[in-house]
């Protein structure tokens, strides 16, 4: 029997009578990487914002750890949505210290997450002087500071150079072994193909495909077929 950490049941979000996402039913296995694929504007970020409490669903249900989602579950969910929420005049350690104070987390957690994201040696360097890749990794560290069971990353490789992409890819791939489930949204097929265990494809606000990602699957073909099908339905 599959061990499901998070599922959505007919999740729907409407803005001014326009459905951004329609009846989305995701199923995320524990200690895996789930790739949420879709063209820009397909509804990926809307789904993730509902899971993280940034948006309230119009309809449907979110189940986390076998119970209906509540705001208390955010203590077990970390997220990096859009840009990393950094204080650019503070160092990496000081950015994390702000979070430990707010969340009443022991300071020893700062060293732990800095090591995970390979930022232990940044010293007093201010986050505003970090490379884009370092900023993204610090954003991941902030998302990890509360020791989450579920980590949500929305287009985390945007703006990164090839080295930064490779570093972040290896970091994400390491999380399931640490007991962290990852939902990774992207419109870049090659990124999801190299990282994900399972994939869901969103187009026109509809979940058109969801399955385990197996060796030999033609992800590009699946993506194009799904995108074309549900764009036509929406039209």
UniProtKB/TrEMBL annotation:
Quote the InterPro entries the UniProt record gives: AAA+_ATPase (IPR003593), ABC_Gallidermin_ATP-bd (IPR022501), ABC_transporter-like_ATP-bd (IPR003439), P-loop_NTPase (IPR027417)
- State the CDD domains in the record: ABC_BcrA_bacitracin_resist
Q: Which UniProt keywords apply?
A: ATP-binding, Nucleotide-binding, Transport
Q: Does the keyword Protein biosynthesis apply?
A: no
What GO molecular function annotation could you give as one example from this UniProt entry?
ATP hydrolysis activity
Top-rank taxon of the source lineage equals: Bacteria
Asked if Coiled coil is a keyword of the record, the answer is: no
Q: Which Pfam families match?
A: ABC_tran
Q: What parts of the sequence cross the membrane?
A: none
SMART domains in alphabetical order: AAA
Listed Gene3D superfamilies: P-loop containing nucleotide triphosphate hydrolases
> What sequence ranges are listed for the domain ABC transporter?
6-229
User: Could you say which protein family the record assigns here?
Assistant: Belongs to the ABC transporter superfamily.
Q: What is this protein called?
A: Lantibiotic protection ABC transporter ATP-binding subunit
Q: Which organism is it from?
A: Acetobacterium paludosum
């Amino acid at each position: 029997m599959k061990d499901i950490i998070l599922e959505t049941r007919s999740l729907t979000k409407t803005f001014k009578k326009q459905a951004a996402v329609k009846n989305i039913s995701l199923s995320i296995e524990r200690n895996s990487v789930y790739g949420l694929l879709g063209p820009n504007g397909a509804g990926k970020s809307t789904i993730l914002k509902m899971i993280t409490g940034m948006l309230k669903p119009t309809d449907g249900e979110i189940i986390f750890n076998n119970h209906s989602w509540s705001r208390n579950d955010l203590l077990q969910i970390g997220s990096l949505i859009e840009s990393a929420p950094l204080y650019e005049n503070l160092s990496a350690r000081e950015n994390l210290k702000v979070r430990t104070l707010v969340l009443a987390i022991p300071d020893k957690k700062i060293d732990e997450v800095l090591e995970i994201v390979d930022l232990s040696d940044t010293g007093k360097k201010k986050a505003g002087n970090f490379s884009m890749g370092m900023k993204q990794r610090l954003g991941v560290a902030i998302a990890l500071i509360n020791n989450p069971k579920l980590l949500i990353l929305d287009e985390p490789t945007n703006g990164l150079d090839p080295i930064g992409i490779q570093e972040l890819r290896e970091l994400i791939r390491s999380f399931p072994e640490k007991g962290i489930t990852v939902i990774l949204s992207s419109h870049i097929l090659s990124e999801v193909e190299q990282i994900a265990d399972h994939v869901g494809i969103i187009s026109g606000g509809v979940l058109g495909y969801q399955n385990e990602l197996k060796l030999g699957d033609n992800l590009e073909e699946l993506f194009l077929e799904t995108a074309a099908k549900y764009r036509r339905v929406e039209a």
